[in-house]
Structure prediction request, 428 residues.
Amino acid sequence: MKTKKSQEIFKKSQTILVGGVNSPVRAFGSVGGTPLVIKKGQGAAIYDEDGNRYIDFVMSWGALILGHAHPVVVQTLQQTASHGTSFGAPTQVEYLLAKEIQKTFPSLQKIRFVNSGTEATQSAIRLARGFTKREKILKFSGCYHGHTDSLLVKAGSGGATFGIPTSQGILEAVSEKTRVLEFNIDEKELSDFFAQEGKELAAVIVEPIAANMGVVLPSKNFLKKLRELCSDFGVLLIFDEVITGFRVNVGGAQKIYDIKPDLTCLGKIIGGGLPVGAYGGRQDIMNNLSPLGGVYQAGTLSGNPLAMAAGLATLKELSQKGIYSRLKAKTAYFCQRLQKILQTSESSCQMNWTTGMFTIFFNSSRVKNFYSAQASDTKAYAHFFHAMLQKGIYLPPSQFEANFISLAHSKKDLDTVLEAIKDYFYEK
Ligand SMILES: *Cc1c(COP(=O)(O)O)cnc(C)c1O
Prediction:
């Protein structure tokens, strides 16, 4: 496979862009080698600068549930752009997207749009502190909530990839207000923690289905117990559904587990591939935001017409009947066969999956939290990653990220990948 152009462009990029990238995991740090420079995408495929084609399982880290360059989204963007790209004044499309989100996320009585998932979680935490007049927050190890200071403590995603428990440059005065427990911690330990510190907590933030240490599902009572304890201790429960929102189901993980958080953060899919984030929830809490209340949060490009229009077009497509059962069936088709390959080949790998996403852990024991995820053989993953790349399959360049299946992945794409993985494990 020729990657000469990618190599040349990336080399030049490194002279001016830090590490040649604008987000760390893209640099292939944990799998080695030179990143491919991507030229275009179409459906489930991406093409690098040398013209190689790959079946894509990154899908802009889950944002592109309809696939690359979906014709309806592209057309909407072209039309919208021709009328101006930003006004810094209210537009109708903000209202329309908020309404569309609320249809399937009724817990979002009020919504505020921002420009990234990071902004959403950061603002939700500020709001929770303003509302409760408390300072501490609780998060879970391996959950990633963007790169805001207070949440960049034992975070997943790039933090896991680069083995950084907590970033440098964060004030101790900030990080010491963040408490961290293991995801899926047992009920007794969770109750004990709340008995000790519950009254000082402003909020608990959690990915209801974790996807930034690889996919990790919540155990049966974990979320339920969290909801109970938060209510008992006057702590706001924040669901970070930046990945799970509009992916795992209509109405996200909160619908699947039938739990109503006080606040929810969204991003990725709701921007249709453009920069976006949103947070929302109980009206009595949200009304504490400026201009109605004393918690300040603003944005020059927030709610900008392009992101709103791309998001609205995407959610409209997703509102068609039977879309999620299709995605669910597609994922099940692929993951059940993959699981069988892993088992029969004695690969000492196992996988976690849910609708629209999965992770193969190079790990012989079941992964149920960050501690068990970290026991994975990242060298073996790197080898697998490069072998797949050679076969035209683009997986996330880190063991600790989810693979995303979109509506654009065809049965043929999935069969091609299954065949490649089968060859890999059976030949070994
Ligand atoms: C991606 C992600 C974020 C951060 O979103 P950005 O748009 O990258 O800032 C926050 N939370 C979760 C769960 C995410 O997956």
Observations:
- The pocket of pyridoxal-5'-phosphate is lined by residues 116-118, 121, 144-146, 207, 212, 240, 242-243, 267, 277 (CB under 6 Å).
- The two ends are 22 Å apart (CA to CA).
- The chain has 15 helices and 14 strands.
